[in-house]
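User: Modeling request: complex.
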Amino acid sequence: MMFAAAAAGILVAMALALTRAFLGPTGYDRILAVNAHGTKTVLLVAVFGFLTERPDFLDISLLYALINFIGTIAVLKYFEYRDLGRNPPDDKKLVP
Amino acid sequence: MTVVLDILSWICLLAGSGFAIIAGIGLLRLPDFFTRMHAAGIGDTLGAGLILLGLMLQAGLTLNLVKLVLILVFIFFTSPTSTHAVAKAALHGGLKPLLTAGKDSKPSKTS
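Assistant: Request completed. Predicted assembly structure:
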């Protein structure tokens, strides 16, 4: 019962984040919303594993957390440099 | 003992999903990209932390507890990293923070 309630709350939050991802005026808003949506997905998969009493879902959840981070960084790099394979050109390098 | 753990787990799970919903509302309603980032941070720290803590209380001393701790540690390391990367990319891309309240609610893109 408590897992169902938590899953419902996470689903509502996912719907809100997805709405921002569709609305978002700039691309950065979309990336941020998709990142938040991915974190909520990790939580939802973990809660769903407990809800159906199949805790093996935690492995999927862990993997999703990894992929979410890598995907966000990759999309950001593509969004900024329009290229994934090469190093950024000198005039577009981020100065720390 | 089980009842106490169940009650604590209820509290953590409900508070965690409440914070997740608050993060979603903030993500939808705040006026500007950088303020929306603040809302996403709430969902990543308090929402994820409390929900995973509630699951940990239900897992007991098993391998599942180790996996949950791993997920929590990983989220706590990667979420600030990706948020920092998004913020830096947005600043580099010429997205200015909205500094005056209510003057123009659209974020201005200058580049």
